[in-house]
Amino acid sequence: MKMTEKMEGPSILLLIPAYNEEERIGPVLREYAKYFKEHYAGEFNIVVVLNGCEDDTLGVVKTAQKEHSEIRYLNYEEPIGKGGALIEGLHHFHEANYDYIGYVDADGATQPPAFHDLIKHCREADCVIGSRWLPGSVIHQPQESRRRFASRCFHVLVQTLFWMSIKDTQCGAKLIRREAIEAVLSHLALADMAFDINLLYSLKKKGFTILEIPTEWTDKIGTKVVLGKTSLVMFLSVVRLRIIYSFIYKHIEFILSPFSEWIYKCLAAPHRKFKGHES
Ligand SMILES: Nc1nc2c(ncn2[C@@H]2O[C@H](COP(=O)(O)OP(=O)(O)O)[C@@H](O)[C@H]2O)c(=O)[nH]1
Ligand SMILES: [Mg+2]
Fold first, then answer.
1. What residue numbers bound the domain in which 85 lies?
2. Is there a domain that residue 50 lies in?
């Protein structure tokens, strides 16, 4: 391939949040690095954002990094959560001049060609997200029925609270234009798995466009989701987000902030303060 061809295509930073992923992340990193080297004409880098891992995820990432120089990592000791890891990654790199920043899960649920599909649609919207609920999507090994039920209940809750008309807010594959990230970065604070709602709603509120495309997804064993606890934390987070964006927030902020801090602490869930809000 000629050098000029290599320079075509927007530059992409792929963030991969990782918690205790020593079993799953190694092959995924290699597959992504190899696939994009061979199929993508443009700059492509991967940053794994780890936190509080009790296993050797870091060692596995370092080994992959020796083989592929496009792999890097950020490592935090504190329990900052999946959302917290992504927020840290976005803060760290939003000035690094990537045209787009995206993220996928560490378990390979989204394979490289499926993430590449998001890139192929990147000119059509400010944010392109994979959807497992659109016609044309392909799901291998669907989630167990309890999990699917919880996920559909969460969808109904999110639609009722936010009216975004997005079919699948929780798919782990998303790609966002850098300017859009910069505009919403200070409004991102949900550190748990409900982070996506925070991101998508902030983008919508600022008038950025979101395109959902059907994706290919494989549910992997070894999920970090503990259904009861994760669902409760996500429920609290989206209700908190709704209140923060409501007109009553400025009147109840002094009660809500310490109360939510306390409740997240009781649940041992990651918590961040919102720096600002809009009603
Ligand atoms: N950094 C970080 N990543 C996390 C945390 N919890 C989950 N993740 C990552 O979030 C992604 C999705 O988690 P996963 O267990 O695959 O969720 P599922 O596919 O919805 O069952 C994976 O890359 C996890 O490693 C966390 O506390 N911190
Ligand atoms: Mg998964």
1. 3-266
2. yes
Beta-strand (E) ranges in the chain? Answer: 12-18, 44-51, 71-76, 100-103, 127-131, 138-140, 174-177, 210-214, 216-218
Task: Report if residue 125 sits inside a domain.
Answer: yes
Query: What are phi and psi for residue 37, nearest 5 degrees?
Result: -65, -40
pLDDT, averaged in runs of 10, over the chain (279 residues): 57 98 97 98 97 97 98 97 98 92 98 98 98 96 89 97 97 98 97 98 98 96 91 97 94 92 96 74
pLDDT at residue 143, rounded to an integer: 82
Alpha carbon distance 70, 51 (integer Å)? 20
230 belongs to a structural domain:
yes
CATH number at residue 164: 3.90.550.10
Atom 13 of ligand 1: nearest residue by CA position = 224
Beta bridge partners of 176: 101, 127
Mutate to test the pocket of ligand 1, among 15, 19, 110, 170 (most ligand atoms within 8 A of CB): 19
The pLDDT of residue 88: 98
pTM: 0.95
- Please tell me the residue having the least CA distance from ligand 1 atom 11: 105
User: Tokens in use for 98?
Assistant: 């990537």
Instruction: Note whether 237 and 192 are within 8 A (CB).
Output: yes
Q: Which residue's entry shows tokens 């050797």?
A: 56
**What total number of domains does the chain contain?**
1
Q: Minimal CA–CA distance to 22: which of 61, 71, 48?
A: 61
- The answer to whether 213 and 128 are in contact (CB under 8 A) is yes
DSSP 8-state class, residue 43: -
Residue 277 lies in a domain: no
